[in-house]
Each structure stands twice: as structure tokens, then as C-alpha cells.
Amino acid sequence: MIRRNLLKATLLTTVIATLLVSSACGSKNKASTNNDTAQSVQATTAKTVTKETEKILKEIEEKVGAELKENIKKNIIHIVLSHHGKWGKIQPNSKEAHIVHRADMYSAKYHRINPIGADKILDLMAKGVQLDDIPDKLNCTQGVIKDRLKRAKQELKVKTTKQLLNYYKKNKKIPIGDNFFIQRVRETEKLKRVVDKKGFKNIMLESPLLPYMIDEEIFKI
Q: 125-132: long-range contacts at Cβ-Cβ below 8 A with a sequence spacing of 24 or more?
């Protein structure tokens, strides 16, 4: 039996990539407040994500010369559409979908955060960089900058950014948030270093899930 670990790893990557597509589509439509409009948007988003997932799966099949079984394709699409669980329109109804949903919730709680703290922001300010220019320097949004400064102010119980900057200049360090926030930042930094070092493809190839993905149950062999 020919083991197709590269294709299997690609399938895992596909689920992650299409989750990002789904999240991106959803984030563009959060401003809708009308129920009818919101339902219409959700339906459109589901169709868009389904088509995008099908397109990616087709490209993978053509690239590696192997065809997925129809039930596997349908389950992957369902996983993508249902990964938000109770916060989405479609609920997980397969074992794999429940696993991905729980993993997504864990990731959102512990990892999905830009690993930038007020210390990095204030360091640039101390060097003369204007606050409006810092998002470009740190490759983040203005919202991230405001949030990190707000967290530091809360920890130090000060009201202004000038007070933060004076504290940083004097002490060369600053609390970036509470313990839970710090844990999230450190975990995300750790994951980023691993991905930068190994590459996402190699991480997928090392996945402990691969031996459990049986060829005959996935591919039309």
C-alpha cells in the first residue's frame, strides 16, 4: 500500500487554510445588524466558502494525482462550515468536525493573538517613532496598538500614554497585561518560532494524525 503522507498533510493544511477563508469572509460581514440581512449574508458566505473549499480540494487532487472519496470531500466542507460551533449557522455533526471546532476554540483562547506587547510599542516611541507610524513598523493594526497600550495602563493604573512612556524610559520594562494575556502572547511567540524554523508543510508531515488516516478510507484507490 502506497502511503500518501504528503497528500494527507495537504488535506490537514487545506482544512486550516479554508478555515481562514471562512473567518475572513465572516469578519467582513460582522457589521450587519438586520436579521434578514444577516441570514442572507451567512447563506452567501456558506456558498462562497463551499466553492472555495471545493476549488482547493480539486487543485490538490490534480497536483498529486489522487482522488478523494465523495464522503471525505463533504466532511471536509462540513468541518470548515461548522468550525464556529454555536457561534455559527451550521453546527458540527461529525467526529472530525467536533474535534476541529474544539481545537479552533482553544486556539482562539490561547494562541490567536498578535504577539505584540506595549513594551515593543513604547520602545519605538522612546526612539522617536511617531505613534501613527508604529503599526507599519510592527506589521499590525492601529487597533492592536490601542489595545496593548490600554492593557499596560490598566496594569500600572495610569491614564495617559505619556505616563506609560515615562515609566518605560525610567525602568526599561513595562507590564504588558495580566498573567493570562502574557501567557497567550508567549504561547503565540513560541508557535511562530516553530513555524518559522520548520515550515508549515514539515509540521503537517510530523502530525501524529497521519497514521490514523487510512488510504482506503480516504482515496479512490
A: 125/161, 125/165, 125/168, 126/165, 126/168, 126/169, 131/161
Which residues, listed in sequence order, are joined to residue 219 by a DSSP beta bridge?
A: 68
Handedness of CA 189, 191, 194, 196 (dihedral sign): negative
Q: How much is the pTM?
A: 0.63
Rounded distance between C-alpha atoms, residue 139 and residue 78, angstroms: 33
| φ, ψ at 219 (rounded to 5°) | -110, 155
- Distance (Å, whole) CA 108 – CA 101: 11
Place of cell 502530525: 207
CB 137 within 8 A of CB 129: yes
pLDDT per position as a tens digit, 83-124: 888 888 889 999 988 988 898 888 777 766 788 999 999 999
* Cβ-Cβ contacts under 8 Å for 14 (sequence gap 6 or more): 53, 56, 57, 60, 76
Q: What separation in angstroms does the CA of 54 have from each of 35, 59, 106?
A: 29, 9, 26
